[in-house]
Write a structure and sequence with these properties.
The structure is a single chain. By secondary structure, this protein is an alpha/beta fold. It has three domains: about 1-95, Helix Hairpins (Orthogonal Bundle); about 100-215, NAD(P)-binding Rossmann-like Domain (Rossmann fold); about 220-325, 2-Layer Sandwich (Alpha-Beta Plaits), CATH 3.30.70. The chain has twelve helices and ten strands. Strand 8 (about 285-290) and strand 9 (about 300) form a beta hairpin. The longest helix has about 50 residues, at about 50-95. The two termini are about 65 Å apart.
């Protein structure tokens, strides 16, 4: 910008100098352009006298110098930008090639951002695929490994090291894109754990058929959490109301376990004992707490405790969320 300002000042002063000598503004500006760009066409008017020759010599020296400096600065700017992009791309590829057993996150929206923070806190390696230029720059600014590409393209998944990854989370707000990514990821890695986001409830079945191990419906989860706070506030606060509880929940997830608060209803768990319910689940989960409306929560309820409709049960299991059918329609 300083060079451009210098060059502009030279052009204005030289043009004004020719105008003072009696030239028209258009002839003066044309002469200045011919001189500073060293085109070498014939002079607009004869250059006679010390005054005109001094202006012309000064314009030749200062104007040509300004053009050379400006051209050099622009070449330097573009070259440096390309080198940074090249080195940045190569560095990302090199870092991804070193990853193994990592997580691939497709999309860096609200859910993708929260997921990245949780994985970072848990020390899990991950790479984010984000095609939006502004968001991909935001990912890099946060210090996360980012692959600027379209996750629906199989080459992007391959570049993210999907053959070596242990899990993929596709959390785009587009159900069709999530289904397509799930299909592509499953075809590229049969052993990959795939967790897919769905917006419409009808998408869940499609994602499962496409190869997703788990389907997350954010709207459904939000409704469940609100129901927990309304129906069983004590149990909900105990599970999610403190950093210690959330840390414990993350620790359980590292062992493949989840914690859920579910409501017993009829027909379903209501009328069964804790032992009968756990036997029916075939060891898939344990009842860690029973919260009955109007009473204090009962931790580690005895096996012969009879479950009543409306009871809130805190269960710990391998895939706790998939056992909602055991608790009836209201679970």
């Amino acid at each position: 910008m300083a060079i451009a300002a210098f060059l502009l000042a030279v052009i204005v002063l030289a043009t004004f100098g020719y105008i003072v000598a009696g030239w028209s503004p258009s002839d003066a500006l044309y002469m200045v352009g011919l001189t500073i760009f060293t085109v070498g066409y014939e002079e607009v008017h004869p250059i006679h006298g010390l005054y005109l020759r001094t202006i012309t010599l000064g314009l030749m020296f200062l104007g040509c110098t300004g053009i050379i400096l400006l051209t050099g600065a622009m070449v330097q700017l573009f070259t440096a930008s390309e080198i940074r992009n090249l080195l940045g791309t190569n560095r990302v590829k090199h870092d991804i090639e070193k990853l193994s057993g990592h997580v691939i996150i497709c999309g860096f929206g609200r859910i993708g951002g929260m997921l990245a923070r949780e994985l970072k806190a848990g020390g899990a390696p991950f790479v984010i695929i984000e095609r939006a230029g502004e968001r991909s720059q935001q990912v890099r600014d946060l210090g996360y490994l980012c692959l600027p590409a379209d996750a629906t393209d199989e080459t992007a998944l391959v570049a993210a090291g999907i053959e070596r990854a242990r899990a993929l989370a596709t959390v785009l707000p587009d159900d069709a894109a999530n289904v397509f990514i799930t299909l592509s990821a499953r075809s590229l890695n049969k052993e990959l754990q795939i967790i897919s986001r769905g917006e419409a409830p009808t998408t869940e079945r499609k994602l499962v058929h496409a190869g997703a191990n788990r389907v997350i419906l954010p709207t459904h989860i939000g409704a469940e959490r609100i129901a927990e706070l309304i129906l069983h506030p004590v149990a909900a606060d105990l599970l999610r109301g403190s950093p210690y509880a959330r840390a414990a929940e993350r620790a359980l997830r590292q062992f493949g376990l989840e914690v859920e608060v579910v409501t017993a209803a009829e027909p379903g768990a209501a009328g069964m004992t804790v032992k009968e319910l756990e036997e029916r689940a075939a060891g898939a989960f344990l009842v860690a707490q029973l919260a009955r409306p109007g009473q204090d929560p009962l931790g580690g309820p005895p096996a012969d405790t009879r479950i009543e409709a409306g009871d809130g049960l805190v269960i710990v299991g391998r895939v706790a969320g998939s056992f909602a059918a055991l608790f009836g329609p209201a679970a």
